[in-house]
């Protein structure tokens, strides 16, 4: 009942929002106010649901009627792909006003994700310094330290005393209050990073000390080019909430927070999951049907080719199959079960790779560990399905063929499944995307081949 | 080459470590020192790889030779399941010494994950207050605010002045330095939470003010029973790095950090991915073969039953199949392709559920959005595979049967795939675990049925 009421009230909200966005209301200040009131009554998820239902043009229209600060608040509630498209649909001037309000890392992400022409138009509307800074940040690949870092840092000179520092911080209290950072970085001449300081440690420091004396000297820092994978390892190794980023000349350029790294790696994990299911792009059901259909077909058409290749093995043995028609009942089972066994081995390798317990070159280690499991599970599953087949056909030899094929193919599947992610990783192809279809094509072919060639060999016993 | 050298040096490290753990070396102080030196030369991932290769008894032996502080450092580098088993294998006294050194949330996690008898023995070795506190924390389910919170907080009285607070903080500087928190919580009588204060804001506050005047009053807080899902939504909505946790009487009991929530939800996402691949428990290849084999078979044996059910449709139509043997080539393709289409729809629903864009009751919305995609993709894929089939058999009607079955089954698969996660969520079953096998069983049956019943109807045209 509650859910139904929620749905009704949401579709009412949507209608009210669309009414407020009607052209005749366009110029009245009261409409902007009414929109603000309406949005303020929704939580983040309700906002996302309602706004995602609007066509992109109306989303842009909505953004342009809000103050840039409110527009930023709204964008934060939307799925990334929706937010980007809405901003692209804005005039360059309106988009620039919004970009100006964003924190530095989000500015770079948005500009980097936008269509190149739209991005250039927005940058042209910003003041030169800001545009240059954003363009520099956006040039870093998204999943590197440079792409994840924020440039808002408190940088203090090493030769300053605690007293002057406190005085200066108090003078800039408003800016400091807005800046949600807990650490200051201590730099020498030329912005060279020499130390790090918890702001709260200034509370308990002698006023006459120099920062150089109370800072933690030679702090760990990372290069702006460090990839996400190494960042995850870095934060696993060190219990930091953030780490300073330096350029190739050891100059402080920003900080990467644990939060940014966690979010990027979480997004990657769930995107890996979707990819393994064949959803490659960031599909939302609020997108147009034809576009969603096209995105899914891209993956499905690769799959159909792989399927045709695997099925050609059956076609090759069609004579045997027509004589032992009972086999046709068991072929899909053999291929499906082996696929499952192989995917388990894929998942364990993916996990060990990401935990750092396995290196991409260690295929021998994987095989030595998978062979035992593959043999045992192959014998158990082959024994089970073979027994079913023997009873079904009333022919012991059919049981031998079906059970034998499943046993052999289970071993093949776990050995192959264990090393496919390693090979793809070495070849710099994303294992989450390609492991499963590659594996199932090969195990389908092997399974069909094992069952049908064995049946051909034993044909007179099967008839 | 590098990888090979690494592997060689690691197996040498392992041998040296095992030599140091030999019984004859047991009591010598020099062996403890040598072990420390050896471990210090490894980074977190190398440590994990080498230590995971040791049998559990040797892992425990290793822990017992280190100081409790060093043992904690080592445990942090190990995969959770390995760490728990190693601690379980320790004497209760050694385990208690290590537990005593852990931060409060890790204490509770470890005790909660240990075998109940072992956990009770460890608690009995700790002092009464600590044991009670840990047992209380461990009683909260793992993925709730209570299970994720840390109890180390700075709680300050509302009536204290900035001056006395600073004096007190300076007096307790060592403790504060160890405690890596950035916020203090302001409490009234009876530890009732009334405000929150950034420690660094004390830097810029008037010394005479009372904390009640400079704190942020009526801070948001959450209940200790809040589940992970709501915690994720909470941190999505609010840009906090942590949030205070209160018990049922509004008393401050701890804080949950964004980091703890991010880690728990990241772990859940990647565990969802593994579950979708049929790896249910936390398998590592360093575990014994029989145990790994048993864990995987649990899932595979469910699958084999589902497969037998689906294949029974083929058995039912065996007569038709023996007359139109070419169909046997296409049956596995029809079931596999529909399974892929359905899994895409599952993945989009899972994502929209977790983004909060979809409610578990909105199956009508899913159907209205999936029907179009299913129709288009069904026609495209059915057209493709039907053409292949018609040419392969030299019979237009076989193309109609194969293409028609794939088209219908694609539509069925996307409609079903879209709502299965919703239904499982309503039934409080984990969608990541059960969606895929349920879906493929039903789509296999439907696909086999569509193709074979259609072929039976059109039998005279196919011969």
What does this entry look like structurally?
The structure is a homodimer of 463-residue chains. The first copy, chain A, has 463 residues and is α/β, with parallel strands linked by helices. Chain A folds into 3 domains: 2-140, Alpha Horseshoe (MgtE N-terminal fold), CATH 1.25.60; 154-273, CBS-domain; 291-462, Orthogonal Bundle (Tetracycline Repressor, domain 2). Helix content of chain A is 69%, strand content 7%. Chain A contains 23 helices and 7 strands. Chain A has a 4-stranded mixed sheet with strand order 1-2-3-4. In chain A, strands 5-6-7 form a 3-stranded mixed sheet. In chain A, strand 2 and strand 3 form a beta hairpin. In chain A, helix 17 (289-316) packs parallel to helix 22 (431-457). Chain A is globular and about 95 Å long. Chains A and B meet through helix 1, helix 3, helix 12, helix 13 and helix 15 of A and helix 1, helix 3, helix 12, helix 13 and helix 15 of B. Chains A, B: GO terms for molecular function: magnesium ion transmembrane transporter activity; metal ion binding.
Any key phrases for this structure?
homodimer; 463 residues; MgtE N-terminal fold; Tetracycline Repressor, domain 2; 3 domains; 4-stranded mixed sheet; 3-stranded mixed sheet; 23 helices; 69% helix; globular
């Amino acid at each position: 009942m509650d859910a139904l009421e929620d749905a009704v009230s949401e579709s009412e909200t949507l209608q009210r929002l669309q009414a407020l966005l009607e052209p005749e209301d366009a110029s009245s200040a009261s409409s902007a106010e009414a929109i603000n009131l309406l949005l303020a009554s929704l939580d983040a998820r309700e906002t996302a649901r309602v706004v995602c239902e609007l066509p992109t043009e109306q989303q842009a229209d909505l953004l342009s009627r809000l103050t840039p600060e409110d527009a930023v608040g709204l964008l934060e509630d939307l799925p990334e792909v929706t937010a980007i498209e809405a901003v692209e649909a804005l005039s360059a001037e309106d988009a620039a006003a919004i970009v100006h309000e964003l924190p530095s890392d989000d500015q770079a992400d948005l500009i980097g994700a936008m269509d190149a022409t739209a991005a250039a138009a927005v940058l042209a509307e910003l003041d030169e310094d800001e545009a240059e800074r954003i363009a520099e940040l956006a040039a870093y690949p998204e999943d590197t330290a440079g792409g994840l870092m924020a440039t808002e840092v408190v940088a203090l000179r090493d030769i300053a005393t605690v007293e002057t520092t406190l005085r200066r911080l108090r003078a800039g209290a408003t800016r400091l209050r807005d800046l949600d950072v807990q650490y200051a970085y201590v730099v020498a001449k030329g912005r060279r990073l020499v130390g790090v300081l918890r702001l709260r440690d200034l509370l308990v420091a002698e006023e006459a000390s120099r920062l150089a004396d109370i800072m933690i000297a030679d702090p760990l820092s990372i290069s702006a080019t460090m990839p996400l994978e190494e960042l995850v390892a870095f934060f696993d190794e060190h219990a930091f909430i953030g780490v300073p980023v330096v350029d190739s000349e050891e100059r402080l350029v920003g900080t990467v927070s644990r939060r940014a790294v966690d979010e990027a790696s979480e997004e990657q994990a769930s995107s890996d999951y979707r990819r393994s299911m064949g959803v490659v792009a960031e599909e939302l059901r609020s997108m147009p049907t034809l576009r969603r259909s096209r995105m899914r077909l891209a993956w499905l058409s690769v799959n159909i080719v792989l399927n045709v290749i695997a099925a050609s093995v059956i076609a090759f043995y069609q004579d045997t199959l027509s004589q032992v028609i009972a086999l046709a009942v068991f072929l899909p089972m053999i291929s499906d079960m082996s696929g499952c066994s192989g995917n388990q081995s894929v998942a364990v390798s993916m996990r060990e790779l990401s935990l750092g317990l396995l290196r991409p070159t260690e295929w021998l280690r994987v095989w030595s560990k998978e062979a035992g499991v593959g043999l045992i599970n192959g014998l158990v599953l082959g024994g089970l399905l073979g027994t079913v087949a023997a009873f079904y056909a009333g022919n012991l030899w059919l049981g031998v063929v079906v059970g034998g094929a499943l046993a052999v193919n289970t071993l093949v599947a776990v050995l192959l499944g264990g090393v496919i992610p390693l090979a793809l990783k070495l070849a710099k192809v994303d294992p989450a995307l390609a492991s499963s279809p590659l594996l199932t094509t090969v195990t389908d072919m092997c399974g069909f081949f094992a069952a049908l060639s064995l049946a051909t060999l034993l044909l007179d016993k099967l008839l």
